[in-house]
Amino acid sequence: MKEIPFLCWIRSQSVFDPFAVPVGPGDDMALVRPVTDDLLVTTDQLLDGVHIVLADHGPQAAGRKAMARGLSDVAAMAAEPVAAVATLALPPGFARADAEAVYLGLRAAAEPFDCPLVGGDVGSWGGPLAITVTVFARPGLREPILRSGAKVGDAVCVTGALGGAWRTTRHLTFTPRVAEALALADAFDVHAMIDLSDGLSVDLAHLAEASGLAAELLADALPIHADAKGLEDPLAAALGDGEDYELLFTLSPDQADRLLAIQPLVVPVTRIGTIVEAAAGLTLIGADGRRQPLEPTGWEHQT
Amino acid sequence: MKEIPFLCWIRSQSVFDPFAVPVGPGDDMALVRPVTDDLLVTTDQLLDGVHIVLADHGPQAAGRKAMARGLSDVAAMAAEPVAAVATLALPPGFARADAEAVYLGLRAAAEPFDCPLVGGDVGSWGGPLAITVTVFARPGLREPILRSGAKVGDAVCVTGALGGAWRTTRHLTFTPRVAEALALADAFDVHAMIDLSDGLSVDLAHLAEASGLAAELLADALPIHADAKGLEDPLAAALGDGEDYELLFTLSPDQADRLLAIQPLVVPVTRIGTIVEAAAGLTLIGADGRRQPLEPTGWEHQT
Q1: Domain B3-139 in CATH 3.30.390.50
Q2: Closest CB to B36 among A37, A50, A300
Q3: Which residues partner with A90 through β-bridges?
Q4: Minimal CA–CA distance to A247: which of A137, A112, A147, A104?
Q5: Within an 8 Å CB–CB cutoff, is residue A37 touching chain B?
Q6: Confidence (pTM)
Q7: Using one digit for the tens of pLDDT, what is the confidence trace for B262-302?
Q8: B302 close to A (CB below 8 A)
Q9: Which CATH architecture has domain B147-296?
Q10: Shortest CB distance from B32 goes to which of A41, A45, A118?
Q11: How far apart are CA A215 and CA A224, in angstroms?
């Protein structure tokens, strides 16, 4: 595939607000304004054979997922997307139509969030498909919500339901919880937040560790997704499958009670546990009250 | 290689000014301030087998070049680097020490430009080494210099000397012309600028096309690099080898005369041609005065 005509095609597809994006694709750098003094940034790669199987899922789903993963990080900070850039490393013999499909997937995921794709880089090589997406964001009305702000006694909550995402197309078609995170942060004093990409047990460990604390989860309280209900061990799927791209967050029990009573989001919020002192360790409390250590079982720990 | 311990090691290596980088690696996004309302951004990939040969050049050189390429784009806009993020896709069996070398190469290239590496993503996969670097920048004292600002009659100038970079280690060890570009833009009314990555003939075509114009080059005037002087056709090398990462820019003949008389940069500036109307086409004028069409011969046109 020739790169220059493809880049020209991308430019022909790119329509920007000239105030917000004075310089789009085609120069040495893109220019975006106004950004404000606080710039949030995340960069993530989508690798064929790791995060997607190109032969099964197709190029448009690959582009879509690559962008949605970045936007899920924006949600995790309760921030507003500003713009994105992307790079594509295309395998040998990659068709022009497939490259266009990747681009259209990227754009389809970004458009609902007013997040223009302002630049990028395309190269052909001998390796598999790799897509890297970098998303910039600005804080919402509140300061960005970090992983490190949890307090002892906080309620641990999640949006949506967990488990089995990789077994269906949900890991490709999920909606990043950008709007939900902004709504939460506006109306509630959320102490800490992370998006669930690696798996609940791993991501909760990240949040707890960043806060210098631990947590206990109630197995019975976990919202199991329908995708996981037919499996041998739905609880293990909810804890370890990952790819849910829901929000995991903590707030005071009073705030949590109010949130759970109102249920202001388009997706249900469930309280699944409590933040505790670090010395107590991560703990899973079974339906019978039995306590056991909660081991991280997300896929990142399998390598 | 286990990713989590490597990420922990990176965090242990990261020391930031807490005002400029309140949130570095380890959360869902990094937070950088203050950026100003104008955000410039570039993203580029360095692919094993295309931009580097890992087995020959080694991991530290790969990291260094990946970052330096991004900073060369910052130079091309006469902008000031703010921060960078990077992703690494690591091939099977990639050693921890090699991953550390990539990181140290990235950082070594960024440090002289006060450009902190504030975040990233690391993944192992079945493909070759791929590095993507995204650099953010803010305008210097002047507006960013685009490719599209050239005017008929402008002098076409370059920094340094061209050709043969790939035949030596220069394509790995070059210094991005960030300081030189800022100095030029501060003191002279530069109309258009681009960095020479693909090759003079290709990059001049980009600049001319973006400006809706053409150019003529004087073959005799081209500064041939010592790396190219032993080759069969040093002129062709200077026109088509690429990877020089020098600046190509245009300004009025009066401004150019003053610049060439003063030579204010650490690297020589040479006038190599003139911007002309688009209808004239890109032209190379030989030592004998013979005019011939200047064909783009950079490597991007070989695919």
Answers
A1: no
A2: A37
A3: A124
A4: A147
A5: yes
A6: 0.96
A7: 999 999 999 999 999 999 999 999 999 999 999 988 655 43
A8: no
A9: Alpha-Beta Complex (3.90)
A10: A41
A11: 19
